[in-house]
């Protein structure tokens, strides 16, 4: 038989999940619960790391081959929205050439996620700017390699 306290906790959690789903939508909720592409890539070609004004940090890892993003991942210990945004940025960047990937902005991330509450829009821009920082890092490495 289930302990009444466990029952209470289960119901409370279900209520919180339901509220979160309503506020953030299905896409954000699912990525927060099951963040695709999350993890620090050990064999990345380049990494972007930024900390937003909110104090949260984002890392984007890219594996690049023939000027194309072969694989992307992200890592953050930030808010739930930043987890969803990092996941979406990694997904959007995968398979794109560097020119296309560098054009993924915060608005594209927000659109792909179905939007965020306005006060959390900056989470999408942080993720997109971190992707750009990773691409810049790659370009810097490439131009240094050409000088040698
Ligand atoms: Fe800082 Fe979301 S509140 S990235």
Alpha carbon gap, first and last residue: 71 Å
| CATH class label | Alpha Beta
Tally of DSSP helical segments: 5
Shape: elongated
Which whole number gives the mean pLDDT?
Answer: 95
Helix content: 55-70%
What fraction of residues sit in β-strands? 15-25%
* Low-confidence sequence ranges: none
Identify the strand order in the major beta sheet.
1-2-3
Description:
This protein is an alpha+beta fold. It has one domain (26-147): Sufe protein. Chain: A (Alpha-Beta Complex). 56% of the residues lie in helices and 16% in strands. The protein contains five helices and three strands, in the order H-E-E-E-H-H-H-H. It has helices at residues 4-33, 80-93, 98-101, 106-113, 121-147; strands spanning 46-51, 57-65, 68-76. A three-stranded antiparallel beta sheet has the order 1-2-3. A hairpin with a 2-residue loop joins strand 2 (57-65) and strand 3. Helix 2 packs across helix 4 (106-113). The longest helix is centred in the first third of the chain and has 30 residues, at 4-33.
């Amino acid at each position: 038989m289930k302990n009444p306290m466990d029952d209470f906790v289960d119901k409370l959690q279900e209520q919180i999940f339901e509220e979160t789903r309503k506020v953030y939508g299905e896409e954000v909720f699912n990525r927060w619960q099951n963040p695709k592409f999350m993890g620090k890539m050990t064999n990345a070609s380049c990494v972007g790391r930024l900390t937003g004004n909110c104090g949260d940090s984002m890392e984007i890892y890219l594996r690049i081959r023939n000027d194309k993003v072969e694989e992307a991942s992200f890592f953050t210990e930030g808010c739930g929205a930043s987890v969803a945004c990092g996941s979406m940025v990694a997904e959007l960047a995968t398979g794109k050439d560097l020119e296309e990937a560098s054009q993924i902005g915060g608005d594209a991330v927000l659109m792909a996620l179905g939007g965020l509450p306005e006060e959390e829009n900056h989470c999408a821009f942080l993720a997109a700017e971190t992707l750009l920082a990773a691409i810049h890092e790659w370009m810097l490495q490439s131009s240094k390699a050409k000088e040698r």
